[in-house]
Amino acid sequence: MSTDTHLPAPSAAATLASDSIGDELRRYDEHLRDVRGLSPGTRRDYLRVVGRLLRQQFADEGVVIANLHPAGIRQFLADELDAHKTPSHASAVAAGLRSYLRYRSTCGDAVGALTAVIASPAHWTLATLPKTLTEEEVAQLLGSFSEVQRSPKRGYAIVRCGLDLGLRAGEIAALMISDIDWRAGTVTLRGTKSLRQDMLPLPVETGEALADYLQHERPTSASAAVFVRYCSPHDLPMTSCAVQKVIARAFRRSGLASYGSHRLRHTFACRLVEHGSSLKEVADLLRHRSLTTTQIYAKLDTPKLAMVALPWPGSSA
What is the pTM of this model? Predict the structure, then answer.
């Protein structure tokens, strides 16, 4: 008896639907990249959500947004929340759906009724404090590179870029040698999340770390990127994912919980606030699109908060 099994070939309708969904996701991704200027990680998150929606709603037909109804969106949300009952997952799904429907709106589709059924879990604005590193933890983190056998100077320079400049992982990976003006002591960021060009002051310690890596450890490479692969081929720049891994390994070596580049970015912002920088200055250096995003750091300005604190009932103050 033959043990061979033959899977049925996909139907023409299923193949058409698959091609249509793939084309739709590619166009949406181009919009996220070229118009919204979103990072690869955010784009991937949105595409996963939208891909699941399209496959559920248009499994046997091409993508036709006019055939997408509020009941279908509600069912998709219910299925997603049944699979993962966490506020963070619910927020991610809602964000992905809203982003996609905004995109479809720019294409001329009437999506108001679809957007209206998307509800997010309660999230109180500025409810939490940004988690930062203490000076002792910063010293631990930077000191951990003395134990590294492979590319210690590269890793040290990467962490300094996060701590001293507040750079995101993608911005560190995209840094070009020509972006550094050694004489003027500045770094120019191009193609950032805000789709603009920004010039930042280059602190002495960060410049020394970058110069040390470039002069004494960086492999010979035709790449214009500051940070390139340790292993061959060296002509490829590091990816944002690789930068995140370097930072995560440093946290683990230091005995700290791994929080990635955003923990470094929060630490940078809080240092600025503690040294008297205004929220506008912090927002400019963090390259926030809105000052509202920066307001959470006001909660860490202990001296100013003490000035407005009410006296404890019954105290002499």
Answer: 0.58
